[in-house]
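Would you kindly consider the sequence and fold I have copied below?
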Amino acid sequence: MDSDNNPEFSGYIHAIARRKALLFGVAIPIAVLAVLLSIGLPDVYTSSALVEIDEPTSSQAMAETSSGESYADQYVQNLKGIVLTDSNLRKMIREHDLYPNYEDDAAMLIRVKRDISVNIVTTPILDPRTGREREVVDAFTLSFDHRDAVKSQKGAEWLVGAFLAEHRRQRQGRASNAAQFYANEAERIRKQVTGLESKLADFKRANAGQLPELTEVNMSIMDRTESQLEQVTQQMASLRQERVFLAAQLEQSRAAGPDAGSVRQLEDQYSRMRSSYDESHPDMVALRRQIDSLKYGTSAAGGTSLRSQLTSKQATLAEARQRYGEEHPDIKRLQRDIATLQTRIKNGERGDVELADGTPVGMQLRTQINAIDSQMGSLMARSAELRAKMSGLEKNVTAAPQVEREYANATRDLTIAREKYEQLLNRQMDAEVSEAAIVGGRVDEFRLVQAPMLPGAPAKPERLAILLIGLVAAVVLGLTITVAAEALDPKVRGARDIRDLLNVSPLVAIPSIRNSRSRRRNAWRFVTASASGFIGVWIVFTVIANYL
């Protein structure tokens, strides 16, 4: 390799010697600045607090956004933006009188924002989904720098309180909003449930007896009704047979006419009644007249007509009124019988019967036939009622499948609405309990692990590091600039440059002659450079000192 590409070490020495003024002009101001900074910078105290993010938010932090930022990181940055507003920072400055020497409000805000630091603390974990290690935010630090150690601690305490209070306020607001939302939704669903219940009740009223849960009951009632109808039919058949038999006996009695046995029977009855009733009792009078009618044939034909019966009842009533008062039971009974006979006569009913019907046997047979007829009427009415009931039950059973489909839809909607209503009520209750717990400070997701302490030693500046870095920088920059200036200078100096350029050796070298003029010029340059360096160093020192 030629000499142009590999200059000798002596060439660098000669270059540094020629440009020692530039070297010192660069290195000395930097070194002086480093010394001034290491000595003159004010002490700055830092008070820090560590706030741990509890498990609820940590679990949310497991889900990362598409940009790679975790939820917790975004949340802390959001809190920082809300807490460190200009109004809050002014309040902090006024409370603790942090910067009494500042008169400009904007400058104070710039300074306090520079002194506050919020740093995220991450922990490496193994992601179970990807199997790779990644960082998860599980805490953050709040720090405040100040030249006064006490004010540094006060500022950090204010930051911690503000962050925790804002976090609690936001969580309380979210819980309150959630509770209000669930309450509104629950009220809306409650109205829906009420409407569905009313609709279902109307449906049940409109389809009473046709509901699916009554199908088995309807079938059971149908079986019982069918059995009852069969029993009524059998009873009616039996009564018809009995009536035919009694009617035959009545015909035989009519053909035989009244006999002595009937008279004796009535006389025996009259003798028995004499032991209990007076001779003037209406029943005794009526029985005596019947015996006379059968024995002597008096009023035999006319005593059985409705009018003759009415006349007899009226005569008996007249005799009874001579012995009893109007409230006596016999008087009341006779009055009812007379009213019944009058009604029957008014309706055109004929009461004439055969002579044999007036005998005790005939009267008994007629009474039995009338009783059978009455029972037959009742049984026929009962049969009609049972048949109508059967028809209704059959209609209900037939319509049950269609009603069941509509009923299932109505009950399903109501069940879903009720379940949703219960869920909303439970969530509302959970939100209200959560809000109460947040207000009481029992479920804070931010937990203060390390409270701000009074710093015992300044955190900044690192004086020894500044001095060492400054001195090393002075030497390195001075040499670098000197070598660069020499390399960029195209001038030819000395016999060495001639030999390197022309490959010939000069016969003689004339040294540089220094006179008073050149010395004054060099002195002036030195003074100018020194003054410029001093001023520059002072400006840089002042700026850095004010910044810190």
Summary: The first strand starts at residue 45 and ends at 53. DSSP finds 16 helices and four strands in the chain. The two ends are 52 Å apart (CA to CA).
